[in-house]
Amino acid sequence: MDRRGFLRTAAALPLMQSLLPGLAAAEDVYPSRNITMIVPFPAGGQADLAARPVAAALERILGKPVIVDNRAGGGGGSVGNAQAARATPDGYTLLMTLSSLAVLPEADRLFERTVAYEVSQFAPIARVLADPTLLAVPASAPWRTLKDFIDDARRRPGEIPYGSSGPYGTLHVAMEMFASSAGIRLLHVPFRGAGPALTSLLGGTVQAMAGAPGTLKPQVEDGRLRVLANWGAERIPSFPGVPTFIELGYRDVEMYIWAGLFGQRELPAPVMTRLRGAMAQAAASPEVVKTFSAVGSAVAYQDAPEFAKFMDRDSARLIAAVKRIGRVE
């Protein structure tokens, strides 16, 4: 560079420096494009039920499209979870998933498989639902009570088929937790999500299923399904006549099918702050509250710090249950 060119560049430096903060701010504005919310299950299950009204609310709050992307596969949500874990940590790929998030890596280790992802790759943003799991059977089935079901299962070990969202997914672990405690053996029929499992239950391919209140309530109200027991610590308002496993004497049978939003561990702090604020607004929005209430689920919002603590406690209990159950198909 000659002396004249150097002087021109030096003279322009103050102007360039004055523009840099504005340029940086423009680049840092989040979001500046569409956001993808991965749901690692087909439509019709608890994660999808949580994702769609929340995505619509976030779209309004953040001012950019939030696209729900159902990426089922692998069993229990492992494929979608892994894809979200590997995504660029910029806030444009989020994950709405279930309590099976912590169980699936342990199941991989149990079967000596390559672990698809680790929970440590994720950063909890907010919990939105936390429903007790319910045991549902066809309304035409002969079982009127949980005792009826257990007595029949003892007479016919391994013959009563039940559906799940995939091996070691939330619904599978719930049923095996119950079967282990009751001393019965059932026939596991895995599907790619709770939606297909529910369709199979309604069609008579399987005879039982653990499910969330929101996915089961419409079918119960239509007289197509009957609910025998509740995996929660207490009865729930949307199913007040359904006893808990605990009150029926199975004190170690307790499970919740929670749904929460996650980003990647390296998510920038300003993006995390923006998402936490947006989720607080979304969870309180009348549209989300109304949508959840219509299917018998209450908003169970927790901000990131509380959600992380809750998840640690719940995951420890579920992992212990998986180790106790051992290798089952």
From TrEMBL:
<dbReference type="InterPro" id="IPR005064">
    <property type="entry name" value="BUG"/>
</dbReference>
<keyword id="KW-0732">Signal</keyword>
<dbReference type="InterPro" id="IPR042100">
    <property type="entry name" value="Bug_dom1"/>
</dbReference>
<comment type="similarity">
    <text>Belongs to the UPF0065 (bug) family.</text>
</comment>
<dbReference type="Pfam" id="PF03401">
    <property type="entry name" value="TctC"/>
</dbReference>
<feature type="signal peptide">
    <location>
        <begin position="1"/>
        <end position="26"/>
    </location>
</feature>
<protein>
    <submittedName>
        <fullName>Uncharacterized protein</fullName>
    </submittedName>
</protein>
